[in-house]
Amino acid sequence: MKLRAVRGMNDILPDEIRRWHRVESAFRRVAELYGYEEVRTPLIEDTSLFVRQIGETTDVVEKEMYSFERHGDRLTVRPEGTAGAARAFVEHGTFAKEPITRWYYLGPMFRGERPAKGRYRQFFQCGCELYGDPGPVSDAEMIDLQVRFLRELGIRDVAVHVNSLGSGDTRARYREALLTHFSPRRDALSEDSQRRLEKNPLRILDSKDPRDHAAAEGAPTILDVLSEEDRAHFDGVKRALDALGITYVVDPKLVRGLDYYTRTLFELKATSADLGAQSTLSGGGRYDDMVEGLGGPKVPAIGFAMGIERLLVAMAEGEAPAKPKPIFIAVLTDAGLAPSLRLASALRARGALVEVDSRDARLKAKLRRADAVGARICVLAGESELERNVFAVKDLAAHAQDEIPVPGADQVLFDRWQSTEGAA
Ligand code: AMP
């Protein structure tokens, strides 16, 4: 039986990895411009962390988590990064060391969703978490960071959607208003939504089932019931976005699939057609209650996560940097092996890329390989040259050949390589 990668989980081969590196380094650079530092938390956490923070009635917790038992512990491979980061923030008492903490992360997440283009079971997210600033300016700055990052990647066709979910009382009032709307329409709802109706009617607004969409027609929006403080916060976010020159849409239907959000909620959507239904590049919002819920003090927080696979689709082709070209050393005789290895070692110590071809093969095969890896400089360590203590050096682009003395060859070749490849 031929083994294959698990459905919905992708191999990323070297051909593609340069585009990944470009996204990852741009993300690190932009996040650091705003004062964020990287945090790395484990891929596996206690299942209860996700159940409590993401919410029992969410799709992620009900259907998608990779959970298992080991040594008597109930564990889950992380479906997202926010809960683990907040757990670490509380566990290490970070709140007591500094009034504001800015963390970013990059890494794989796991959800057993139905695979489609832009939707996988292992996917990569990059994200930021900001603890300790109640906003609303920090909310707008977080959106600004994402827009800047996307622009760095050449992704400009983006719509910024914002909403407010309110906090405390507002949420409870909205829950009542939704119950009043949906209860008489109960039979028209999907089975999932009927089950969730009493526990969490907000989830119905986030459903992908067309029956639920129909039943949600005319439902009250959260913006109708926002408290004065929540409204002032939301107005502050909008004012700061205006000051930053960011165009946005207020989208009262925006709910998102996780329960922990309070107040500001946002999504950045690609407006070009490439991603179809999976056009949401980024999503996030405020989660002012999570740190306290994890046993810490009341510390407000806000965060976002972006799917790297979707960024790669939305990025223009040709955004990948070129693969660097090596100096190619073709070993042609046994006697040539030691000087070739010494040369390779000296060149690498200087920082040049080197490929040594010591296969038992004809010169023609080696030159074909040199060509395939795009080498311009090809060093031939053959018998007649080594008797005279020189290397033959071919310039494969200029179709020229010369000889250079073995002593000092590394300096000469490094200079040549740098003037072509290294400088690029
Ligand atoms: P979420 O963690 O659900 O708020 O999602 C944030 C972002 O992660 C989304 O906007 C997507 O870009 C990405 N994402 C979420 N789920 C998946 C998935 N199954 N496959 C690929 N990307 C995903």
Give a written overview of the molecule:
Strand 12 (327-331), helix 15 (334-350) and strand 13 form a beta-alpha-beta unit. The protein folds into two domains: 14-168 and 227-319, BirA Bifunctional Protein, domain 2 (2-Layer Sandwich), CATH 3.30.930.10; 327-418, 3-Layer(aba) Sandwich (Rossmann fold), CATH 3.40.50. The strands form three sheets. The chain has an eight-stranded mixed sheet. It has 18 helices and 16 strands. Helix 1 runs antiparallel to helix 6 (137-152), helix 6 packs parallel to helix 12 (228-244) and helix 15 crosses helix 18 (409-422). It has helices at 14-33, 47-54, 59-64, 82-91, 94-97, 137-152, 168-182, 191-196, 202-205, 210-216, 222-225, 228-244, 290-293, 308-314, 334-350, 363-372, 383-387, 409-422; strands at 37-38, 44-46, 66-70, 73-77, 101-110, 122-131, 158-164, 249-250, 262-270, 280-286, 301-307, 327-331, 354-357, 377-381, 390-395, 400-405. The longest helix has 20 residues, at 14-33. By secondary structure, it is an alpha+beta fold. The structure holds adenosine monophosphate. Residues 80, 111, 113, 118-120, 123, 125, 257, 280-283, 305-307, 309-310 line the site of adenosine monophosphate.
Write the layout of secondary structure elements.
Layout: H1 14-33, E1 37-38, E2 44-46, H2 47-54, H3 59-64, E3 66-70, E4 73-77, H4 82-91, H5 94-97, E5 101-110, E6 122-131, H6 137-152, E7 158-164, H7 168-182, H8 191-196, H9 202-205, H10 210-216, H11 222-225, H12 228-244, E8 249-250, E9 262-270, E10 280-286, H13 290-293, E11 301-307, H14 308-314, E12 327-331, H15 334-350, E13 354-357, H16 363-372, E14 377-381, H17 383-387, E15 390-395, E16 400-405, H18 409-422
Parallel strand pairs: 1-5, 7-8, 12-13, 12-14
Antiparallel strand pairs: 2-4, 3-4, 5-6, 6-11, 7-9, 9-10, 10-11, 14-15, 15-16
Helix pairs in contact: 1-6, 6-12, 15-18
Adenosine monophosphate binds at residues 80, 111, 113, 118-120, 123, 125, 257, 280-283, 305-307, 309-310.
